Amino acid sequence: MRPMKYTVSIEIALPRERTARLLADPVHLPKWLRGLVAHEPLSGGHGQLGTTSRVVMQMGRRKFECTETITRREPEDLREIPNTGVVHFDREIVGEGMWSAVRDRLTEADPETTLWESENEYRFDGFLMKLVGRLVPGAFRRQSQQHMQDFKAFAERGEDVREAAD
């Protein structure tokens, strides 16, 4: 089976530096990352280059556990973003039957708006995950877009996905 690849994007009505700092702050993850049960660094500091974390997501009745490794973070200090620079957050995610690479880019659409683009690549291993990848490839794209929309609602209006689920 060939890798599944797609790109999703969204505009956030906040300056790039503020958007990047909110996106990178582990305290805020449960507020916008729908289904997050746990995100625990196993080595390194949360969000830092080379850090490996245990991630547990709840999807319906099913829990999915994976390992996330930060493979790129530029610039390292999010308070020092050059005016013309792009903020990069790249990570590799490995779970049962699945490998994924996510390459997030934050660019300045204008001084008060950030464009968040996310390139996603999935490779599936094992019968069940290959079947899921073939039968419902759009579900992965929809989930990525939902996470972006949830982040936008959190960043712009302070909405918390946990409150919406209650």
UniProtKB/TrEMBL annotation:
CDD domains, alphabetized: SRPBCC (cd07812)
Against InterPro entries, the record matches this protein to: Polyketide_cyclase/dehydratase (IPR019587), START-like_dom_sf (IPR023393)
Name it.
Polyketide cyclase / dehydrase and lipid transport
Q: Name one Pfam family in it.
A: Polyketide_cyc2
Q: Which domain of life is it from?
A: Bacteria
